[in-house]
Amino acid sequence: MTVRDHARAIVEAQWFQTSVITLILVNAVLLGVETSPSLMAAHGELLHRIDLCVLGVFVLELALRIYAHRGAFFRDPWSCFDLAIVGIALLPASGPFAVLRTLRVLRVLRLLSVIPTLRHVVAGLLKALPGMASIALLVALLLYVSAVMSTKLFRVTSPEHFGDVWTSLFTLFQIMTGDSWGEIAKTVMDEQPMAWIFFVGYILASTFIALNLFIAVAVEALEHESGEHRDHRGELGADSREVLRELRELRAEVAELRAAGLAAERRG
């Protein structure tokens, strides 16, 4: 077994993965503690040293994985993601890159690459993007049509909310999220009582239909990703059972040959 094989066995071991997850969680806690001025004033130097040690361990881990997997490391999107996250943390904390120091918190996102279930969730959401793009276009059309209508209907009644198309777009987006839509509607309905028809219809179309379509597409993609994962595990299980069956047959044949050889020796 070569040194590279030993390195590959280490990085693929369960204890190694668990240690990396634990270190990421510890790092997340430290990054949160650094937002406290009082704690930074009392223990800033210690926290900075611990942060450097954690970063050093992350660099060593990536170096070990690159050595173990060589070119395969760079063909894996999740490995490239880890490399980019740690690379950002290595940028200098002064000069033009000082603002990027806040991006150190992105190291917490490495949990996405080391926890398989999170990887499947992200993969499912990425597969849902084409469907979500179609729904986003539908929502954009709904917003624009409703903005034009509301501007023409309510410009005089509520110019602060519907004075022009851009203001109406922002107001309708606010209503779609459920933020203070009752106050906006009441302001308009004080002058135009029948305006409730527009607001109720818009909320039904945007919130209860369009936004729920996003959830439906995401859930479908996650179910599809989970199904593919189960099928893949089933295929691996079938292959493993086939290998075990062949190994048992091979052992049986070896035992028969050994018994035949012993019988021949006794007769001789």
Automatic annotation (TrEMBL):
Keyword Nucleus: no
Keywords: Coiled coil, Membrane, Transmembrane, Transmembrane helix
Compartment(s) where it occurs, according to its Swiss-Prot or TrEMBL record: Membrane
Membrane topology: Multi-pass membrane protein
Protein name: Ion transporter
Keyword Hydrolase on entry: no
GO cellular component terms listed in the entry, alphabetical order: voltage-gated sodium channel complex
InterPro entries: Ion_trans_dom, VGCC_Ca_Na, Volt_channel_dom_sf
Major location (coarse): membrane
Transmembrane segments: 15-34, 46-68, 80-100, 121-145, 194-219
Sections of the chain in a coiled coil: 240-267
Organism: Marinitenerispora sediminis
Boundaries of every Ion transport domain copy: 14-225
Molecular function per GO: voltage-gated sodium channel activity
